[in-house]
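The following block was generated as part of the benchmark described in Methods. Ligand: PRP.
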Amino acid sequence: MPLHVSTHPLVAHKLAILRDRTTEPKKFRELVRELTWLLGYEAMADLATRPEPIETPLEPMTAARLEPKVGLIPILRAGLGMVDAMLELLPTAEVWHIGLYRDERTLKPVEYYNKLPDAASVQVCLVLDPMLATGGSAAATIDILKEWGAARVKQVSLIGAPEGMATLSAAHPDVDIHVAAMDSHLNERGYIVPGLGDAGDRQFGTFAGPASEPGHGPDEETAEVVRRLQRNLGD
Ligand code: PRP
Ligand code: URA
């Protein structure tokens, strides 16, 4: 499972502002878009091209055109903020939404939306989700995509945790993971530390109060899920 952590200074700079607790939703959304553009550029660097004869105003030449049909798979809802930037890079990409939320107690993904057609219509799928925390949402989405018939899948996230990377690489060793940063660890509520908090809430301004904040009221069942993931990391 190749892990690609961006080393681009622009990515680091924009990520610093994104993480800052005082960055409000409008600016946060702009930064998610800009970071996705930069990460998307890196994530698509190895896509195949085919030769195509064209004529410039000066003479005929053999140019390169993108070969595979690409699908963008945003995981609802936080992945939505990454779609427009990717579509700017690849206007002909298909967008297939997958709805998953993470049960706050068990940290397991719960599927609620999937309208994929019977057979895969793209060769390369880019899974878009700002946060790779336990890796449960990403692994479940990629299970769905592989069952659908996707030949090649790449995960594009803004911030990853070692626990999520380990889970995803064990479940799908063939999947490339592209992140702007790999952070330190998950806290007892399964939030990435230092992270940026809740990516969905920060994009969409849905702050429901202290109970929704990372770190609020540790729950023993949730903490045990995180401890298990961390023990697996040490193996
Ligand atoms: C967040 C995030 C990922 C998931 C990551 O979504 O956008 O989808 O958590 O966590 P995991 O790696 O532990 O599965 P959330 O469940 O908060 O839903 P939302 O996007 O609707 O807010
Ligand atoms: N989901 C988020 O939005 N943030 C985290 O840190 C973990 C999961």
